[in-house]
Amino acid sequence: MVVDTQSLRSSPAVGEEPGTAFRAIRRLGHDRRDEALALWRNVEARQTSVALTCSFNWTAAWLEAYGEMIPHEFVVAEVLDQPVGIALVTEGVGQTEGPLPIRTRHLGTAGEPEASSVVVEYNDILVEPQHRDWFLREIIGVMQSSGEVDAIRLDGFPAGIIDIANGKGWHTRPVVSRYYDLVGSDEPWALLSPNMRRSIRRKLRGLEPCELVWSTSREEALASFNHLVELHQARWTKDGEPGCYSDPRFFAFHRNVAERLAPAGQAVFACLKHKGEVLAAAELLIDRGRLLQYQKGWNPEHEKLSPGLVLDCLCLEEARLRGYRHFDFLGGISDYKTRLSSHENSLEWREYRLPTWKWMLLDNARRARQVFRSLIPSARTNSETETEADLPTSSPESTP
Questions:
Q1: pTM of the full predicted structure?
Q2: CATH superfamily of domain region 8-176+348-398
Q3: Dist. CA 175–CA 169, nearest whole Å
């Protein structure tokens, strides 16, 4: 990705606060990664609240795993020549729309091929709050001007925080992220249905004696990560699937999470032990007082004992005792997520389609197909409903 590193002065808009005329944008190429990450640490150190997915540790871990494959640059926001925000902009690899390859730009740790993707959720940008909307507009402008591009993608942002990315040309795919509200709960699983609580206690009795191992140190987290990989891969290879950890970049990123983020208080690896054997394991991310269940694996030979569900329930109670606000199951629709949650958030994947010949061709093909279906009833009966935008749909936990 070719980058012009010259600072670009931003003109103040009507109604902006005094001093905004001294704002500027600076771009740093991938070859200046060390300089950019040093700036990232500087900006983050001055923030009172930083989303996990735009933190230094998360970004550096992702770049170490994916940086050689994914072209990228850094966009820096400055006020009076001092950095007040920084963002990662990537060039998508292996992105498609129907049969056509699509040239995409992404904000944050995104843009990987689907089989390798982390599928970032609760995405955000690192910037001082008063400059947020201005910085996001500038980033979108940078993405539009970064060479030939068909689409700009803002992946996995919480609903409501990127509303300036709206209007003509923008397409939004909302995804429900279900969570359990731990605040004010004075007993285990109090917000679940009576039938669910009885089921949990019955399953716990079936696995007595059992132990929850809560790993936060580097050595313990790496050991639990190895259990997670082994169990997750066993489950999927049993069904003839490769398993997500078979991808070396995906594996490397999550090993970085265990090695670096867990000791920094940004991740936990949990294991369920029964009679000395690890039956289930999970990777939990820590984001501003919330636990996010990213990935889970369990021994398929003990599926009748529901070790995955038991691990979920033990982690829920451990999170309550440790003072976390929410236990979030992340995006995707699953029966167990519905049964174990009390509330829901909405995440959004937004895409801006630039006026290129690819979209014209795809739109014409869709219209032709709609006409064909309207003329031939059997075509309507035997076909699936076509969505407006083919955006990523897999949540990390459901990915093989």
A1: 0.88
A2: Gcn5-related N-acetyltransferase (GNAT) (3.40.630.30)
A3: 20
